[in-house]
From TrEMBL:
<dbReference type="Pfam" id="PF00005">
    <property type="entry name" value="ABC_tran"/>
</dbReference>
<dbReference type="InterPro" id="IPR036640">
    <property type="entry name" value="ABC1_TM_sf"/>
</dbReference>
<dbReference type="InterPro" id="IPR011527">
    <property type="entry name" value="ABC1_TM_dom"/>
</dbReference>
<dbReference type="InterPro" id="IPR027417">
    <property type="entry name" value="P-loop_NTPase"/>
</dbReference>
<feature type="transmembrane region" description="Helical">
    <location>
        <begin position="68"/>
        <end position="89"/>
    </location>
</feature>
<keyword id="KW-0067">ATP-binding</keyword>
<feature type="transmembrane region" description="Helical">
    <location>
        <begin position="109"/>
        <end position="128"/>
    </location>
</feature>
<keyword id="KW-0472">Membrane</keyword>
<keyword id="KW-0812">Transmembrane</keyword>
<protein>
    <submittedName>
        <fullName>ATP-binding cassette domain-containing protein</fullName>
    </submittedName>
</protein>
<feature type="transmembrane region" description="Helical">
    <location>
        <begin position="149"/>
        <end position="176"/>
    </location>
</feature>
<dbReference type="GO" id="GO:0005524">
    <property type="term" value="F:ATP binding"/>
</dbReference>
<feature type="transmembrane region" description="Helical">
    <location>
        <begin position="290"/>
        <end position="308"/>
    </location>
</feature>
<feature type="domain" description="ABC transporter">
    <location>
        <begin position="360"/>
        <end position="593"/>
    </location>
</feature>
<feature type="domain" description="ABC transmembrane type-1">
    <location>
        <begin position="37"/>
        <end position="323"/>
    </location>
</feature>
<keyword id="KW-0547">Nucleotide-binding</keyword>
<feature type="transmembrane region" description="Helical">
    <location>
        <begin position="182"/>
        <end position="200"/>
    </location>
</feature>
Amino acid sequence: MLDRSTPSPGQKRARLREIERRLRHAVEPASLRWLGLALVIVTLGGGAASLAPLALKAVVDRLAGPQATGTSLGALAGLVGLYVAALLFQRLCEQIQAYAYARGEQRLVRRFGLLAYTHMLILPASFHQDHKSGGLAQSLAQGLLGLRLILTHAALTVAPVVVQIVVAGVVLGSVFGPSMGLVLLAALLAYCAVFTWGVFRLHGAVKGVSSAQIDVGGATADGLMNVEAIKAYTAERRFARRYDALLAATEDQWRVFLRLRLQNGLAVALVFAAAVAGVHLIAGRQVADGAMTIGAFVLVNTYLLQLVRPLETLGFAIRDIGQGLAYLDTIGAILDETPEPGSELPEARSAKPPPLPAELVFEDVDFGFGDRDTLQAISFRAAPGALIGIVGPSGAGKSSLLRLVLRFNEPTRGRVLFDGQPLGELPLRSLREQIALVSQDTILFNDTIGANIALAAEDADEDAITQAAARARLSEFLADLPDGLNTLVGERGLKLSGGERQRVSIARAALKNARLVILDEPTAALDPATERAIWQAMSGLSQGATTLVVTHRLSTVAEADEILVLERGRIVERGKHVELLALGGLYARLWRTQASGAFRSAATFDDDALASSF
Ligand SMILES: Nc1ncnc2c1ncn2[C@@H]1O[C@H](COP(=O)(O)OP(=O)(O)OP(=O)(O)O)[C@@H](O)[C@H]1O
């Protein structure tokens, strides 16, 4: 499971380092140029904003002073012009910085999003089995939001605010002496203390919100993906109740977060009031003593606001950056996950494999999910071009065996050799490029039939796709569709029947021209006539590729070069069909059962168990 606990400081540092490493990869000249430009303009604008009050002071002093009545329009225009120019320059900077920043941010977020998404794709299948896809999508969205929060404040808030604070502090300190400086310093320290306290308290609350939102994201996708099952079992209310419980948990987490944020905001307001009181008392006293002009009093007031507002903004920025870091922490935990083994091996220079069928050997292989032994002491050899049938009761470990060949899982003992080379030494990509898979549950992408078939070969032209579809006996079906190959299959392919989905999956494998074909119940959803036709087509699939077939229909593998009979993760019988019948063991019993009736012929080994469960 994703690590939901609060990470230790060491873990946090490691995750931040990982994010920083990824960000460095994500940064490219274009985004750097835009962000750099934004930073420069923001700083210039901040400087202009800080100096504008000096121009205002000059105007006020002139108008409140003894020479006010004799001020010429030209002199007044000069002073006002200076003030207006500073303000205008600041506004212009704001517009340009917003544009430049948005361009840089978009590019960086796009690159970071791509890196994070690609990383998720190369994480082991076991990782994905342990996580809800909706939750992962939510983590990614939060990560991008976190990155935006940090970038926005780092580029648009921190830099100008620091400039404004420094300028305002220097002007006030030098013009109004040490007592004013002390009050301002005390206010500055109080702000820093309040915000640091807030950031620490809010971090845990943001983590709580983030993980509750991930649960909601997971439940949303889970429910919507299984909407027909929910309808069929009239479970809408039950699911709505469960969903509401998750939303309530999220609301609770938000409540904690909002309460802490409110407390923080109130503390800031108190510091602000104290600073205003202190500064105005000192300045008012100086005006009363005749040591300060009205213009200077206005200047103090303006600078105070200019000092306090940026300070507050800075504080809020720090708080948001804390929130952004907490969001990034979640995606950081995912980026911390190790990609599937073999994905890091470099591809061989001459990546083109020989056109011959592959040889596959299992040497005394054990495998288990967690502590459960799923496969034990599996040994067999699939000679180049051989057809190996794998049969056995439900849950015997047949699909698990196939998963080891694709390296979706790794053996706990023993070796699997592909063309004599241990799988662990082969780059994952080149291994998988040589294998075609027709899996047990065919889930299609929400795209056209043609695009779904072309998953096997990105650059395949329409002719090749049409031929592959014909070999999977899809031609007639496609001819009936007004849009043919361009027909959209809907979410997970649900607009097609189970058999049609299965045939699209078979067409994919046919298009791939692989050296090893893995078929996991490839025809379970087909009627016997279509199954026979497809088998004829499949015997020509990939020009005699080595083939592993898992099936419950024993007739499917009667022609196999070797049949492995699996029971409770072990090979309990092996041989050709006739040999196994002669053996009179499990295989022969199952064959007799299937041969004894039309219903049985298409049934699975578990029919008795199924029947008795009603
Ligand atoms: N991701 C997983 N995590 C934990 N256990 C699993 C996982 N996948 C499968 N199993 C368990 O491993 C065992 C073997 O499953 P597998 O899918 O290989 O059986 P099978 O022989 O292909 O069954 P069937 O004929 O019903 O498809 C089963 O007991 C199953 O519950």
